Amino acid sequence: MIADFFAMGGYAWYVWMAYGVAALAIALEIAAVRVRRKRAFDELRMSVDAPPAGAAMTRKGTAR
Amino acid sequence: MLINWFRFASPISFYPIAGSWSYAFGALAALFAGAGLVIALWIAPTDATQGDAYRIIFIHVPTAWMAMFIYLVMAGWSALALGFNTRLSAMMAQALAPTGALMAALALWTGAFWGRPTWGTYWAWDARMTSTLILLFLYLGVIALRAALEDPRRADRACAVLALVGAVNVPIIYFSVQWWNTLHQGSSISLTAAPKMAMTMLAGILVMTAAAWSYTIAVVLARVQAIIVERERGAGWLESLIQFPAGGSA
Amino acid sequence: MTAGKPSPLAGALAAQPAAAEAVADTHASVLAAIGWAVARDFRVALRSKGELGVQLLFYVIVVSLFPLATSPSRETLATLGPGVLWTSALLASLLSLPRLFASDYHDGTLEQIALSSRPLAALVSGKMAAHWLTSGLPVALMAPLLGAQYALEGPVLATLAVSLLLGTPILSLLGAVGAALTLGARGGGTLLALLVLPLYAPVLIFGAGAVDAVRAGVSAAPHLSLLGAGLLVALVGVPFAVAAAVRIALD
């Protein structure tokens, strides 16, 4: 039964290449967004924890 | 109940919303996808002519639709960005492009793997596939322009103009490709003709489309959070986020 | 700026020709702006005739390469001909686009142009017209000569010329949007190609399609009318998009 499911009536290669790559692409996109968010936060944390030298005034900076 | 929508045009107000909605839509996407896959791979009956290969449409059709919809939504945010000069609208457009490109690419990929067993070839220059290919190029163009321009505000406006010019051209492109295709293929079968829709097949496609929509919203909102943090660095309010992360921790 | 008139009626009568004059003035200034821009850009382009010659030569060389890559058989060439001649025209257009704004941008002239009181859309229209005169038009005129290399017959060559005459201005117009958006950006010319080529696709389809139709013995009227319609729409709409893009690049 399970074997039949994976065989997809003989079209296994096509069906699983399609579904598999789609699943992989989505997983990669989710991972990429999470990495991007984490990195953005890390950089924010670093810029807050280590203010630039001579910054007696609040560093406003320009919106990036 | 009048909502002052412009309040949410500030990245500050929008950030926490983006976070909580992202998780909500993510959960929704998982539910829809689960149900959709069950229908697609189990419940839907095997097709008489195409066998089990037709099951690919449950991914191909939703991704193709999303590729189109996302472009329109991106163009909408671009119009807002140009019209109201709001940063957040431009950030939303920026966040939408990669997912749109991914959807277009998946539509092409799944279409190829559906085409091979059904029509004998991985790539045939049929109207919809060719239009989707050009749509992919349009997405990549917006992404490339964003990467090539240093000043983020200039990039915002330039990408907005490009997205709108592309949006105006998309119907023209679709029409011209359709024209070209019918001239050259004559009365041959449309490669994206799905088998006659049993109710289950239609239900499966709709559920998977709902999954695709929810997924897109979830991913795009998460990405826009990252973009907000990247671009608003130096603005004081962000620092409070680190102490009290709202709607999505790092 | 009105002279005080003693009676309202006299004032109303005086206002009417003034309004008409104002409209005529606007028309005149738009045309004057276009005319000025065309003349200036044309003069500037002619100063570097070498560059123009090189672009035309590029077209000739690319067109001549395809038979080497495929086959010199007359049948193959006749089939390939329209597509090759049209696609090469697209590539030649891409090659010539950077000079539309780049040098003016780098020496500050573009900023002056944008600051002038003349409508920017009119000025860029003039620039695009001059650009077409020095890039698209020569290609359109050269193509029938090269078409003979591809064993294409008289009527087919005539259609080729007409389709290019209608299509290359559209290429200049759409290309200008890309050129303005990518001013000073990294990746310059290649980025421009990526942005603009998808937009070129319909022009290519209808242009090459027209030539193919005549080759097949069918009328090219639908293709050419669509091209013509596209040209009119582009002429009216695109200059504003280009003006917006120029302002974005200058800010």
Q: Give the fraction of residues assigned to helices of chain B.
A: over 70%
What's the overall geometry of chain B? globular
User: Mean pLDDT score of chain B, rounded?
Assistant: 87
Poorly predicted runs of chain A: none
Structure write-up:
The complex is a heterotrimer of chains A (64), B (250) and C (251). Chain A has 64 residues and is an all-alpha fold. In chain A, 69% of the residues lie in helices and 0% in strands. Chain A is built from two helices and no strands. The model of chain A has no long low-confidence stretch (mean pLDDT 81). With 250 residues, chain B is mostly helical. In chain B, helix 3 runs antiparallel to helix 6. Chain B is built from seven helices and no strands. Chain B has one domain. Chains B and C meet through helix 4 and helix 5 of B and helix 9 and helix 10 of C.
Annotate the secondary structure layout.
The complex is a heterotrimer of chains A (64), B (250) and C (251).
Chain A lengths: L1 H6 L4 H38 L15
Chain B lengths: L10 H33 L13 H28 L2 H33 L7 H22 L3 H34 L13 H33 L5 H7 L7
Chain C lengths: L7 H40 L1 H21 L4 H23 L5 H5 L2 H7 L4 H15 L1 H12 L6 H28 L6 H28 L5 H30 L1
Helix pairs in contact in C: 1-6, 2-3, 2-7, 3-7, 3-8, 3-9, 6-8, 6-10, 7-8, 8-9, 8-10, 9-10
Brief descriptors of the model:
heterotrimer; B: 250 residues; mainly alpha; 7 helices; 76% helix; C: 251 residues; 83% helix; globular; disordered N terminus
